[in-house]
Amino acid sequence: MPKNRNTFSFLARRSRRAASWVVHRGWAWAQEAGAVTAEHPGRLRFGAIGEGTRLAFPQGTVFGEPWIELGEHCIIGEQVTLTAGMMPDLDLGPEPILTLGDGVVLGRGSHVIADTTVSIGSDTYCGPYVYITSTNHSYDDPHEPVGKQWPRMEPVEIGPGCWIGTGAVILPGARLGRNVVVAAGAVVRGEVPDHAVVAGAPARVVRSWDPEKGWQPPLRTPAPVPIPKGVTPEQLLALAELDQEPGAR
């Protein structure tokens, strides 16, 4: 009897490994086949989608694609929602509603809701679960359920080179300048100047760049050491491997 149990246990382990291999290989195939690019847009027909841009599979909710324009080399993570208009199948006119510049990154689970114009500048990076919206509920009438009252809509503009941390919320009417840093979990409304760091709910400026004095208040950590000119990727890889060897430090 023990011998039979060992045999069944061995066969069960082999079956589990085989099933795991099939599932993982199948999922990898689905991720590759389901990704959206300019060459392979699938069912999505964007107003524009640039070379090198990729929407990872599975995608989140996407509608109003004819009024969504994506620049080149954008990275859109899994389960990212991109919508133009309040609902599908609306005619939103001749101009784009949602625009992403070149090199924009939207982290996993982020939402960009553009009922009126939303523009995200080139090389802006968003962490996971960022929420950007041009629409907010109104509650003017105290006798009517908030969800049944007509929402307020204001354009959103995010300048180039920004970094928006995990879970941040960008509200209607927000205008972020160039190279703005938004801390994780911040709730941003109104105007944010160039080269500012904002944090909190509601967000406020906690650090800014002065051309004469530099960052105010000063940064608490030293600046990263730039890579010397002429260093090749192979040399960097060799240095990384050397640093990981026992006794390297």
Supply database-style keywords.
249 residues, alpha/beta, seven-stranded parallel sheet, 26% strand, globular
Task: Note down, in words, how this protein is organized.
The protein contains two helices and 24 strands. Strands 2-5-8-11-16-19-22-23-24 form a nine-stranded mixed sheet, with no helix packed on it. It has a seven-stranded parallel sheet with strand order 1-4-7-10-15-18-21, with no helix packed on it. Strands 3-6-9-12-17-20 form a six-stranded parallel sheet, with no helix packed on it. A hairpin with a 3-residue loop joins strand 23 and strand 24 (214-216). It has 249 residues and is an alpha/beta fold. The radius of gyration is 24 Å and the shape is globular. It starts with a helix and ends in a 5-residue tail after the last helix. The longest helix has 33 residues, at 2-34.
Question: How are the secondary structure elements laid out?
Answer:
Blueprint: H1 2-34, E1 48-49, E2 54-55, E3 62-63, E4 68-70, E5 75-76, E6 81-84, E7 98-100, E8 105-106, E9 111-114, E10 118-120, E11 125-126, E12 131-133, E13 135-136, E14 152-153, E15 156-158, E16 163-164, E17 169-170, E18 175-176, E19 181-182, E20 187-188, E21 191-192, E22 196-199, E23 204-210, E24 214-216, H2 233-244
Parallel strand pairs: 1-4, 2-5, 3-6, 4-7, 5-8, 6-9, 7-10, 8-11, 9-12, 10-15, 11-16, 12-17, 15-18, 16-19, 17-20, 18-21, 19-22
Antiparallel strand pairs: 13-14, 22-23, 23-24
